[in-house]
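wait is this the right file?? whatever heres the structure
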């Protein structure tokens, strides 16, 4: 199943500093959005996989490190970044945390004279401040080799708010709510203040309200960069899930057949008085694959804890030690009629149990 980019796709004080390489120089206060765009666009990249695309930005030029949203790279076996003026460069995922929706990538080929963006202090952002968002809207992608990011501008509506956008998304503890439009494909791009400093990681929009967009605060993002760059993947078993409690679940998929399949599963499961998380992708050789999870399985509990939303699941994953084994309980749906290893023909709604071993870091 192919998932559509969601919303913006499609969730101690920070010291502003340059994390290596040639940094975009801070602009004078109240620089125009166009000026900010010109300074920041060389560091803003288009992250492209087989299933979709999004945005990201270089934050450490010496190491060739890029930060983006975890949902941008989820389920991808191969990724590349298109750097303005440089073309496509393969990238690898160093670390990913779907429960925080942040991932760190590394350019596979060293690049000279990269531009890195500078982080600002999101704690200093105030309501009414002007902000500029950069990214690569999917609808505008025609020639990825030559295109540049686009920008939108707006004002901060609330400088520090939690966000619970949908049952299929994690709980975001610290976001900046603003009016700078985020279109599908903008996820993972930078939200910049008037000094061309990153104050947020563009992530999502409020599906229930017009003109409300959310970027994970730079303070929170920066606290995750080192563990992710060091290979943190404990909370990423290599699956993609959608909550059957999500009223907009079918909108997450681009293929009409997938949309219909999800709608059918959602109706049958909920009509049976059940809820859970539907597996719609499993990465090869991931912890989820080794646990023999398959597309169409519905996870109903983890470690004897019922899970019907991503926030439920993340509560369990984030409290579990790295390398630990978690018992998963669920039910069959689209795999009904298949024969298991014991020769048993599975039926819709029949229950299963597996053991999931988390990554060691």
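ok assuming it is, sequence goes like this
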């Amino acid at each position: 199943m192919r998932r559509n980019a969601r919303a913006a796709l499609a969730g101690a004080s920070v010291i502003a500093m340059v994390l290596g390489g040639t940094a975009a120089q801070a602009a004078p206060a109240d620089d125009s959005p166009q000026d900010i765009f010109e300074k920041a666009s060389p560091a803003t990249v288009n992250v492209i996989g087989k299933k979709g695309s999004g945005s990201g930005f270089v934050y450490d030029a010496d190491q060739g490190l890029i930060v983006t949203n975890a949902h941008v790279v989820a389920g991808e076996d191969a990724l590349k970044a298109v750097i303005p003026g440089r073309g496509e460069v393969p990238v690898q995922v160093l670390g990913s945390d779907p429960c925080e929706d942040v991932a760190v990538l590394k350019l596979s080929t060293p690049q000279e004279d990269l531009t890195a963006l500078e982080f600002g202090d999101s704690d200093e952002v105030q309501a009414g401040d002007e902000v500029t968002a950069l990214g690569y809207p999917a609808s505008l992608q025609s020639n990825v080799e030559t295109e540049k990011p686009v920008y939108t501008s707006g004002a901060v509506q609330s400088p520090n708010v939690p966000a619970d956008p949908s049952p299929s998304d994690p709980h975001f503890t610290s976001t900046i709510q603003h009016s700078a439009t985020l279109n599908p494909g903008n996820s993972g791009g930078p939200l910049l203040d008037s000094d061309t400093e990153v104050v947020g990681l563009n992530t999502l929009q409020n599906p229930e309200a017009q003109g409300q967009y959310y970027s994970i605060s730079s303070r929170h993002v920066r606290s995750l960069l080192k563990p992710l760059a060091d290979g943190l993947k404990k909370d990423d078993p290599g699956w993609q899930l959608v909550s059957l409690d999500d009223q907009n679940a079918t909108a997450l998929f681009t293929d009409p057949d997938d949309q219909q399949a999800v709608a059918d599963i959602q109706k049958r499961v909920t009509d049976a008085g059940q809820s859970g998380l539907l597996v719609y992708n499993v990465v090869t050789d991931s912890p989820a694959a080794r646990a023999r999870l398959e597309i169409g399985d519905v996870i109903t509990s983890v470690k004897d804890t019922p899970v019907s939303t991503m926030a439920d699941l993340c509560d369990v994953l984030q409290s579990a030690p790295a390398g630990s084994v978690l018992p998963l309980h669920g039910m069959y749906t689209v795999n009904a009629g298949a024969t298991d290893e014991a020769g048993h023909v599975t039926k819709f709604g029949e229950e299963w149990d597996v053991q999931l071993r988390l990554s060691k870091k």
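The first strand starts at residue 22 and ends at 23. so i think its the right one actually
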